[in-house]
Amino acid sequence: MANMIENLKSIKEKALAEILMISDKKTLNEIKVKYLGKQGELTAILRGMRDVASEDRPKVGALVNEVRSAIEGQISAKEEKFAEEELAHALASQKVDITEPSKFVKRGAIHAIPMITDKLIDICVDMGFTVVDGPEVETDYYNFEAMNIPKNHPSRDMQDSFYVTENILLRTQTSAVQSRELETRKPPFKIISPGKTYRNDSDSTHSPVFHQCEGLVVDENVSMADLKIMLAEMMKRLYGQGTQVRFRPSFFPFTEPSIEVDVSCPNCHGEGCKTCKGTGFLEILGAGVVNPRVLEIAGIDSKKYTGFAFGMGIERTSMVLNSIPDLRTMFKNDIRFLNQLK
Ligand code: PHE
Q: Is 170 or 104 the better-scoring residue by pLDDT?
């Protein structure tokens, strides 16, 4: 028995000294097995208990328990220490710096079409215009008839327009809003109506869906001179102060006289280049003095009131401003392309 007690004491001393020296989890596990495992040294002693005289058993048993719990206590203290160190290490090495800016932030931006539309609206509102809206699915009456476009006019051709029924179509021009506003408003007024328009046309400078902005001024003594001054100012604000503006006679059934407006090419400033096909100028919009017929159709006294109107393509405006050769690229949504537009 004395031998057993000696043995137990030396196991305890040895084990505690070994555990103290351990610096990694793996060795700690091996030590755990070595002393407390099924084949462990302490278990072997416990097996020898049956040879101990019965009166000595409680004493030896108590000592075995004491040694066992001393070793267990030391091991779990070490385990705890390792776990703490592991956690501290993980926290230090996996630290996330929430103040660090992320590397790949792609910022969204306004598309070129609403961007130009907004610019145009800003310019016009600054000049006293009110922004109005109209339906995209329009009656033949407002789109054509009330605009003094007779039944046999080429722009009524089925090939140009998307008809829904015989009398309903997708509006081919924002001039349809003119007819509606002329019918309901009392002069004087100044309105613009930006929006989508539709024509059965598709190539590098035409899209079946495109945008226009219509402008209409009705008042007493409004003349072509007012229209020209206002358009020249508008074009300068849109394309830059150095822009030259040119007026050419034209024809629209709803304006008389009618003009077409060219601006000096923003790419070569009038010198002549590929964008303007060497002419130095680019055609930008249609305009004119409102045909008295249009006023009369809407019930406005054309002896008392006169007016002028203009209509411009939004895509065309952006193409000229950015020297874009193909309109379709504006609808492809390639962010690398769109990011460059002004
Ligand atoms: N509606 C014409 C077009 O689409 C443009 C225009 C508008 C011309 C107003 C004169 C006056 O071509």
A: 170
Residues 30, 21: contact at Cβ < 8 Å? no
Outline where 155-255 has alpha helix (H).
175-184, 224-239
Q: Report which ligand 1 atom has the smallest distance to the Cα of 285.
A: 5
pLDDT value at 155 more than 70: no
Q: How far is the CA of 253 from the centre of ligand 1 (A)?
A: 9
Expressed in percent and rounded to 5, the helix, strand and coil fractions of the chain are: 45, 20, 35
Ligand 1 pocket, CB under 6 A:
173, 175, 214, 252, 255, 286-288, 309-311
Model pTM score: 0.70
Ligand 1 pocket check: which of 175, 222, 228 to mutate, most ligand atoms within 8 Å of Cβ?
Answer: 175
Whether pLDDT at 17 is above 80: yes
pLDDT at 1: 67
Mutate to test the pocket of ligand 1, among 173, 207, 250, 317 (most ligand atoms within 8 A of CB): 173
Q: Is the confidence at residue 283, as pLDDT, over 90?
A: yes
Q: Which two tokens stand for residue 77?
A: 């203290």
Confidence grade of residue 159 (pLDDT, cut at 50, 70, 90): low
Q: Whose CA is nearest to atom 2 of ligand 1?
A: 311
Q: Which of 256, 231, 240, 241 is nearest to 310 (CA)?
A: 231
| Phi-psi sector, 240: left (phi>0), alpha (psi -120 to 50), beta | left
Distance CA 177, CA 147 (A): 10
Interaxial angle between packed helices 112-126 and 314-322, expressed in degrees from 0 to 180 and rounded to the nearest 10: 100
Residue 213 alpha carbon to ligand 1 centre in Å: 9
